[in-house]
Amino acid sequence: MQELRFQPRLIPTLATLCLMALFVYLGLWQAGKGERLLAERLLFATRAKLGPLPISGALVDPQALRDAPITVRGRYEFEQGFFVDNRQHNGVAGLHVVTPLKIEGSETRILVNRGWVGWPNGRKILPKVPTPEGVVEVRGIADVPLVKKFLLMPEHAEARTQLWMQMDLPRFALLVQYPVQPVLLLQNRDDAHDGLVRDWQAPEDRVPMHQSYALQWFGMAAALLVFYGYASFGRRMGSEPGRPDPT
Question: Among 80, 106, 111, 211, which lies 20 to 30 A Cα-Cα from 13?
Fold first, then answer.
């Protein structure tokens, strides 16, 4: 008769332990990331219920304020404004209109993305966008733009131009002599009647994605353990009844 016998070998055992430790670590990392994102979304929902947070001249923590509703009072400085190129709305090419706002009672500015505008006169002519005068109160969402560094892109701040390829807050802060809030205010859709389109995408819910990745890593660890157990059991012939076991 055949008898199962556990016969582990050193190298496969060490390899299995290392891979299982790696899979479990990656699963815990993905699960932790999902939990952090879930906490951020719950905080965002709580902030939304409390209303917009007023922004003063004191510089904020951009990560703590990300995606939070905010409000700020000040004066637009249209001469310092610029456009961000390659922005589409419903398949139509256009620009985002970004204007600094000098925060009331301070020297600090905050950049306001006032919305999208098309190219009515072609790409060779920048559109003319009216800017509100006097003290205004602007409401919107605090955004922390991701700056993508492309090949051959200079690391230093270049001379100011009115047409930018991407929204780059650090670059703008280097070009000016005053403090700049490290967040971009995405103005609310109905906050002003200026003809600009403000159709911002809601923050992506990536919690289920990270939870799914965590389950996959844990599943791979479990599958590896089952495979190792199956491969480590060998079969040997046992003795028949009434006959001595050969040795």
Answer: 211
The model's pLDDT over 176-208, given as tens digits with 9 standing for 90+, comes to 999 999 999 999 988 888 889 998 876 667 788
Residue 31 CB partners (closer than 8 Å, separation 6+): 210, 211, 214
CA triplet 74, 76, 82: central angle to 5 degrees? 140
At residue 139, the pLDDT reads 94
pLDDT at 157: 44
Do 168 and 227 fall into the same domain?
no
Q: Which domain holds residue 22?
A: 6-50+211-235
Determine the residue type at 113.
N
Judgement on whether residues 64 and 165 belong to the same structural domain of the protein: yes
Q: Which two tokens stand for residue 57?
A: 């001249």
Total structural domains within the chain? 2
Low-confidence ranges of the chain (pLDDT < 50): 151-158, 235-240, 246-247
Query: Are residues 183 and 230 located together in one domain of the fold?
Result: no
Output the pLDDT for position 67.
Answer: 83
